[in-house]
Request: fold
Amino acid sequence: MKLNNVYIIILILLTKTSFSQQDYTQNSDAVNDISAPMESIYIDINGGLLFSGEYLYYSMFCFDTTTKNNSQMSKIVYVELIASNGDRIFKHKIKLDNGRGYADFFLPVTLNTGHYKLVAYTNWMRNGDFNNLGNANLTIINPYKSITSIEDTQVKIDSVSVNNLLKENKVIQLIGLKLNKERYGKRQKVVVELHDSLNNIGGSYSVSVKRKIDIPASEFRHTVDYYSRLKAQKIQFSKDDSNVFLPEFRGELFKGSIRHKGSDNKGNLKVAVSIAHDFNILNIAHTDISGNFYFNVDENYSTNKAYFQVLGENSQDYDVILEPKPELDISELKFETFRLNPEWKDFIIEQSVYNQVENAYFEFRSDSLSILLHDNLFKGRIYESYNLDDYNRFATLKETVQEIIKNTSIRKDNERQDVFEIQGFNFGTNTNIKPLLILDGVIVDNHSKMMDFNATTIKTVKIYRDQFVIDLEVFQGIINIETIGGLTTNEFINNGNIPSIQINKPQVKKTYYKQTYTNENRISRLPDFRQQLLWIPIFNVSENNKTISFFTSDVKGVYEIKLEGFTSNGKPVSILKEFEVN
Reply:
């Protein structure tokens, strides 16, 4: 994709330094009445009617509205479930890969029966038309919570078939589904083959196989309908605009500020950011004249806590504040009225029993979490490791360094404070440059505070003797300390020596459970009351991947295979196909 002027301007600003960013409106006199392509999101869900005790599964497609291709701009999308009374049930943060992402949410018994909306948006989309938001209608029935009124349904249903949508929008159905048969018994294998007219369509889709429910719910928006309404849109702005939301195309974009407890000196300072859990994410950001700073995180992480500290002298005189992203304005959302019909009573009871049994046996059909991949800061670096159990232990870290750790010493800085120093691999190394001190994945700038650290709690000390550069900050080596109990039991950090701030971690990708039966386990006494037989959030079709298979459960009824997505050249595909289990 060819970048226009605004892409280049924002790219330069975001990559000017590794983790530092200034508002483009304050940095570029060249920006004047620039237009930039807008994004739009289609969001698919596993059903328009769900019950408390079930999972809401969703899959997203993020598009560039001008090209109608997958957007390469945003890497983060935000998803919220909104109740008709305005309550925000959850807010997810999803990482996008080539414009695609997915997650799920277990519907708790605290929800009220009624209509809900699932909305999805990127930070860049906040600048555009509200209609570009991903928007899926959802009806939730909670049979476990008392309901004051049970009347005839008053739900307004716009029941538009996929075939009608195809005809109205003159879209040729390029892909079809073929079953190996139309009726199946319990716990039998179903094989679905995808076939297309050109035999080389390809594309990316989401697939849901679920029992059909004959209760009217909110209108479902298929890809064909979405595609017909997708309009090319650009955002217009000039250098005087101060309320433009920046795109997160390098990862999550955080904004913070520092506040001095006694003076107005806030500019040109450095803020260290540590996100420590499964691996270490270490950033250093620089403040502008107003004390604001930005940093990007494009790595994976699985914790809701980040540690912040101002580097340099008198760092204790500053407070670090992480600014939350503004709430999405949901005033334009329109909800329908929903009332329960007494005729649905038997079905609702049956559905509730099935869900309770399935949840009771959840451990036998649980999903698995995908492994988080991360480019470790220390990958490929030469280091010297000291397991302190192999030595006679000393009481403090200072004594341990002096007596055990080679090529590491202690000197006085200009403030007459103790600091560590590391000898490089050659004698010309400038050892007046401080090493980076890391304790259980968290940067510790004040070395003198660590001199009396209880060395009996230390498991290993690793010394890296070569220079490291983080956001143009040079460190002569790294002292990486891991304690026996880890970060959760580290009293030095948890006692407030390094302030922490809660952050909202992205949803971890899952591999969803897929039931299989063989001749041996088909007669298992373990009940199988699954009604969601299959959920594939991202199904990439290719010449070698055109077959879907799954097994039926013990629940009889009519089931529906729903495939939603777009071909490799951006054409919408919406397929609904039914089969029966008896």
User: Anything to note?
Assistant: The helical segments are 5-14, 162-168, 223-229, 345-360, 397-403, 491-497.
